[in-house]
Amino acid sequence: MCSPNTTEEIMAAANADFERRVMATVAASEAHGDPPWRTAAEVGQCCVSHEPSSAGFPNADLASVLVSNLCFSRNTPSMWKLLEQAMASGLVHPLHALALLTSRVILNRRVQPEAYRLYLELMKQYSHSFPFLGPGACREKIIKSIDASLQLSHIYQVEKMDFGIVVVLFVLRAVTTLVDCVLEDFGLPFASKFLVEDRWPHPIDLHAIDRESNCSSKHHDHLRQTNIMIAMEVLVRPKSLDSFHRRLQFIKEHMSSGTILMSMNYLLEKLLSNVEVMMNVVYRTNKHCLRGHLDDKRSVKSPLSFLTGAGKAGCWISFDILMENAMDGRKTVCPIAAFEKLAELTRKLQLINQASWQETFQALWISALRLVQRAREPVSGPVPHLDSRLCLLLSIVPLTIAILLKEDSDAVYGVDSDSTMKQGLVACLQSLMQFTGLLSPPEPVTEAANNAATKAAVFVSKNKMQAGILRMMPQNNCSPRAMGSLLHLMVEACISRDLIDTSAYFWPGYVVLYVGKTCPQTVLIQDSQWSNFMQGAPLGESLQSALIATPAPSVAELKKLTHLALNGSEKERLIAPKILCAASLIRGWNIQEHTVCAMVKLLSPPVPSDAPATGEAKHFLGHMHMLTATLSSLCHTDIVHILWLHGVIPEVIAALIPLCEVFGSLQPPSTYRSSTSEEVSVYTVFSLAFLFLLRLYKFYVPSQGHYSSGRTGPVRPELTLDYFLLMRNNIIPNKFTTKNADCANIADPLDHLPHRSIYIDSFPKLRAWYFQNQACVASILSGLCNPRPVLDITNKIFNMIFWKENKGGQGVLRSSCLDSDTDTSSHSSRTSTTSLHGSSRSTSTSISEDEDQVLPLLPAWQVLEAIPIVLEALLTACANGKLSSRQLTTGLRDLVDFFPASIAAIVSYCSAEITRGIWKDVPMNGTDWPNPSEALYSFESGVKEVLATTGVHIQSCYPRGMPPMLPLPLASLLSLFITFKMDKSLEYARAVVGRAAIYHAVHSNWPGMLICGAIGYQKLRKWQDFLIVTLSCSTFTHDRDAVVQLIRSCFRAFLGPVLSDCSSVTSARGVVGLLGQSLSNIYSLTPGILFLRTYHLFHDPHFITEVILKLVMECACNLAQECTSGSPVRLKSGVMSLTESFSTARQVAILGASLLYVAGQEILVQVLFEETVPTILLSANKGRSGTEGSFSNLLEGYAISYLMFFSSAIFAGFRSASSKIGSSKRHERIITSHLNFMARVFEHNIVLNCDPTLWKMHVRCFLGLVVRFAPSWIQSMKLDVLQKLSNVLKVWQEHDLALSLLELGGTGAIEVVVESLF
């Protein structure tokens, strides 16, 4: 066996012999004057006789011999011709020859300009059309030679080379090197690492330098200048540019996907820098200007320019739906801040619609303005009103824009995108001046709008006065007064967050002064009572009233109020929270996020550092009056909803839980009598905190784990205390101190919030009640456990409830209640009745006349534990006739007045018993219970009229002659609810019992719903419209046909009448048709509003995916029929064009995706991809034929693709760094399932029954959208699946899409991508 050295010597000798024979053959051919092709043939014979391992073609050894002699010992024209002939005939591979030449010619281009010129000519000819290199020994040898020549593996740190990676890296290095050469030859100060001598295996030929000095410098200078232009031509060829951009983008997107490409970061940055320099170079030759050749001149028109149908607003319908959906306070709201979700949606819609930032911001503002205008007139009921809508317009939207600006400023872009976005915002606000109708301020905020306009007028006036221009100053020495609109409030909200500057005050037409002799007085910020407050004025009644009615102008005022609430005098601690929760919180839009933070701080008063570890209760007791004032101020509906919109509910819950734990464990003082008094006690604080906590989630609804929730689980997250605390523990470190401070571009002074994690297990008493309540409302308990201490508390509660009757000589009433015979009752609770019966004997006849001994002054948790036993006995006695309904309702209300938190136990127990359904119905005849007969039929007609207005027609009606009856627990709960007056001071209690009563009324059957509604219709006159609309939703809890009608009406209202209808010009459609212009008239309610109020009531919402998909396809079919209708030529002006039909189909898909997402979020999107669409494609009918059928199938496939893409894009993430739609693991699984379905169809493993035109259009359109807007969706796909899809696209002549699809397959797809180019 030969040693390694001997082997190397043998190989070296063989290569030397091969080189000698080749060059001898070349010399002989030159001597005979043979043409290049004959010389190449003779040289090929030498390769055939070479050793077997190197005898194949293209031959790596031959390329090395030719190039090594050509550079530069035999640099003759005949050798260049021979090399070109060998490359053309396949004797050597062009890529190999060019790589060898690159390593030798580049560094010697100045001393060998002729060789550099010929090298550039070969690059022009071959660098963009390399022949495919098949497998074999030559392939590996050529790859190794190219790598060694250009040092690719060393530079890029590539461990394993294959032909695809070699091609990509060669193009990168060759193009980069040429760009650097051009820059250097232009004399630009640029030092490229790739032009350093030690980076090339072949140094500069010093002998050539000596020879060059003896040559004609004039000729060489001219040749060098010409070479620069030739190099530019190589770079600026359109195909070269496309290939360069494609490869550059391909590698950039996969930079972080593997170690192979991690080292290219510097290269990419350098290439982009070179491109910018080249675009600024101006060089004239042959009267042609080279300017910006490296820029891609292809432009893509925005889809907005082709929009018809529902108009441009149709592409932004998701904004309107999301905002209107956020205004429904009756269903659980996502604990994420509204501006976070809105910012992500804005990014996606801007990308998908290919819109400018001006168009995007304009759509965002207009949607928010429409939201406000719908509530110009007061709306009845416990629902968010105008203040919540103004919060979204003037606080949430500016915070959304602030997030977008912050993301763009943090991202690395090639252009100043932050400046572009700000310019778009300014242009958008200026263009909004034309929408005078939308900008008209509602009556409650007219004064605020005028003040904002007046502030701008004063600023302009002072500026002009300083400039010597006095003509705008009023003559009566009074401050100018301007007429304001919502635009002025919007501009102020943007200025306060540093989104724009005060130059907005000088926009043409922005300041409109009052014209007249009188100058109305106004209260500007610098003259307001807030200045007096900051200067130390005492909080007297007049100052209190002024501060409560006027929002705080800055964060400094909030900081001082917070300090007074926590550290001030007793009076200041009571007043400061009321001021904060008044106008400053509700209408202090410019700093509302900071006011919200201040309120959370008041709920979590900081514990002094010197406080003992066990002093938490004492610490909270010191803030009892402040907490009472804060909690009582926060209970109003709009304030709660504002907290929802700002996403602070998880933190509020985390603050309320310790309050409930501490105050629920303390015993009230002996002087406590009732919550209706002005005395503040532990019962008061506990009740306010506990009821506020329960108001934030549906504690009376069974857990989703206790009932069937469909095929793929519940469609909405179950918002429990555990879930909220988990959300809070994950997001609180950056919730207030980072994000909001960054958005407002100021330091947040309220960075006090505790960052420690909070778990419900840390609060044993609350935890015990929490799990007991969950078991109770799930109705899994067959009886109540009655330990002796609880029975003692129960007796005290009975003493209190029946104290008045016992004092008046009716003590037998209590005994009858407890001793009722449960055998005649429909309810069985033997254990409870026996225990109560035994304990009552010793107390029923000896009730003390002293009230102090009657009241159960015990810790709140103990009272809550005993109340269910009391309720069971009361309902049992009432069912047995031992207790009248009036006495039951009065007793419950007395219990609530004494201990307001008892509402929680009453609601939980009644909800559980309603769910169990074992109680007999009681007659609502007006004697025992309220009689709804007077309003029953009018309420029913109102419900049917509302449903008919939205296109839903039902056959149900209340049976005539049947007496109204309700289950006893529901009748008790409803009777208790109507005892609460419409008083704001009772809203904290009324909100809890009211939501529960309405929930159970809505989920009752048709007669029960009507009875509940009619009772409320009579007793709560102010809520009549609210009750009619709310209880109309009961229809959709059990009637699928009504749901289908409603969704169909949504599409019909959005599209409007067909074009052939003469009324289509004036009819409402688009956003106005879907959501309307006003909510004040319930009998003009639009289907979109009703859908957003009812979708959470659908029993099994999974079926609506099929409904929406079929409606989208039906609309597409109708559009195709309208487009291909056979009208006479002269009437074709009324026929929809192809562009209009595709535009309208796209808008319909956006509508369907938006409705689908709000109804079920990602769960329904998953059902759409994995079940509904495959089922439709497998079962579709091929019956249509002809031109109409073909175009209909085409349009249906287009609409299906857009529906799927939009619905999945809405819940997918967004990658700010790449400005593309991102993905999650769940999202990747959904997309993967559908692409695998496509691949199985192409493999003929699945046979479709739909029309081939529909299928082809769907595949092309969907893959095109994914490749263009969401490439990350494909990066997790298996390479074999992408190859199958790509092969089919090539057969369909979609070569560009096929190549783009493969390029997204990750680093493993590089070779496949390169091979697909040959």
Automatic annotation (TrEMBL):
<dbReference type="InterPro" id="IPR039638">
    <property type="entry name" value="MED33A/B"/>
</dbReference>
<feature type="region of interest" description="Disordered">
    <location>
        <begin position="820"/>
        <end position="847"/>
    </location>
</feature>
<dbReference type="GO" id="GO:0016592">
    <property type="term" value="C:mediator complex"/>
</dbReference>
<dbReference type="GO" id="GO:2000762">
    <property type="term" value="P:regulation of phenylpropanoid metabolic process"/>
</dbReference>
<protein>
    <submittedName>
        <fullName>Mediator of RNA polymerase II transcription subunit 33A</fullName>
    </submittedName>
</protein>
